[in-house]
Amino acid sequence: MAKFLYVYHGSGKMPTEEAERKAAMDAWTDWYGKLGSAVVDGGNPVGMSRMLLPGGKVENNGGSNPTAGYTIVEARDIDDAVGKARDCPILMDPGFSVEIAPIIEMM
Fold this sequence. Notes:
Blueprint: E1 2-10, H1 18-35, E2 39-45, E3 51-52, E4 58-59, E5 67-75, H2 78-85, E6 96-102
Antiparallel strand pairs: 1-5, 1-6, 2-5, 3-4
């Protein structure tokens, strides 16, 4: 099995109400449960990044497509990895997307 990186992109707001936070966490827990042992690293959300551009210019807003978090999964191939990502809870918000990339083992 190959490993794939899911990079979550978007800039939505974290739920502020306890019930909304619980519902969001439950959705992620359920999705990870469906993926089972395919989840190599459940990852984490990330804070706002800085984008370093050629010439040394820094963008403080994470660039045009900010990273929101990541997960690492195992799958047969990229099509299988895409299929596993289709039910990702982050896709319930139209402001987010999932980038899927194969991890190339170098060592």
